[in-house]
C-alpha cells in the first residue's frame, strides 16, 4: 500500500514503509476499489439472505393459511417473499454503504 507520509508504493502486506519506516495502517485508508469490492460483497450477502428469509417466511405463511394454499399459491407467495426479501437486503446494503 502507499505510504501516507512519503507516498512510497509499498508491498500490499507490508507493515512498515520501506522508505521512511512509517507504520502502515491496513484498517484505515483503504482504497476506493477495496471499499467498492466490500460494498459489493455486502450487497450480495444481504440480497441473498434477505431473499432466502423472505422466501421461507412467506412460504411458511402460505402453508399456514386457514383454507390451505394450493401449490400454485404457495409458489407465488414464496416468490414474492423472495423478491421482497432481496429488495430489503439491497436497501439495507445501500443504507450501510452510505453511513
Ligand atoms: Zn514512507
Question: Can you put this structure into words, describing what you see?
Answer:
The chain has 99 residues and is mostly helical. It has two domains: 1-29; 32-98, no CATH class. It is 61% helix and 0% strand. The chain is rod-shaped. The relative contact order is 0.14. Zinc ion (ZN) binds next to loops.
Give the biggest sheet: none
Indicate the mean pLDDT.
Answer: 84
Taking pLDDT < 50 over at least 5 consecutive residues as the criterion, the unreliable ranges are none
Q: Give the distance, in angstroms, between the N- and C-terminal Cα atoms.
A: 25 Å
Number of domains as seen in the coordinates: 2
Ligand species = zinc ion
Basic shape: rod-shaped
- Provide a count of the helices: 2
- The topology string of helices and strands comes to HH
The helix content, as a percent range, equals 55-70%
Tell me what portion of residues adopts beta-strand conformation.
under 5%
Question: Structural class, please?
Answer: mainly alpha
What Rg, in angstroms, do the CA atoms define?
A: 23 Å
Count all strands and give the number: 0
Amino acid at each position: 500500500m502507499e505510504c501516507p507520509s512519503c507516498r512510497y508504493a509499498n508491498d500490499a502486506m507490508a507493515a512498515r514503509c520501506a522508505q521512511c519506516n512509517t507504520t502502515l495502517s491496513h484498517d484505515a485508508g483503504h482504497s476506493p476499489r477495496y471499499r467498492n469490492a466490500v460494498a459489493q460483497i455486502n450487497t450480495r450477502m444481504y440480497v441473498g439472505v434477505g431473499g432466502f428469509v423472505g422466501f421461507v417466511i412467506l412460504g411458511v405463511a402460505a402453508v399456514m393459511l386457514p383454507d390451505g394454499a394450493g401449490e400454485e399459491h404457495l409458489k407465488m407467495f414464496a416468490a414474492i417473499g423472495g423478491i421482497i426479501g432481496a429488495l430489503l437486503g439491497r436497501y439495507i446494503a445501500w443504507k450501510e454503504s452510505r453511513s
